[in-house]
Amino acid sequence: MDTEKKLEEVNRIMKEAGKDNSAFAGSFMNFMGATMGKGALDTKTKEFLALALGIAARCEWCISYHVNEAIKAGATRKELMEVGYVTVLMYGSQALMEMNSLLDAINKLEKQ
């Protein structure tokens, strides 16, 4: 599935969750905003952590979403790839295969 389609699906499920249960969606979005906003760690660092966990969890939607957010926070291709390498070091060969999704997302989103 295409990176942009994955991002659309992330947005779709959050929109639908908001229609179905606004308390859940609102609480989740508030929690995410408070968690991912600047604090002791800057937003880019937090996106790197989320990306690494997305790779380890083999979640293509998470990878697409967090590559996009990391780029918005100023991440470079080299930094994003290094996040992938650290994930492979810590998680193993499954993470190496997920770097295909990482590359797809970087290639698609860094040009926008």
UniProtKB/TrEMBL annotation:
Q: Which domain of life is it from?
A: Archaea
Please name the InterPro entries in this protein's record.
AhpD-like, AhpD_core, CMD-like
| UniProt entry tagged with the keyword DNA-binding | yes
User: GO: which molecular function terms?
Assistant: DNA binding; peroxiredoxin activity
Write down the Pfam families for this protein, in alphabetical order. CMD (PF02627)
Domain (Carboxymuconolactone decarboxylase-like) ranges: 24-99
Q: Enumerate the UniProt keywords alphabetically.
A: DNA-binding
Matching entries from NCBIfam families are given as: ahpD_dom (TIGR00778)
Its recorded name reads DNA-binding protein
Q: Origin organism of this chain? A: Ferroplasma acidarmanus Fer1
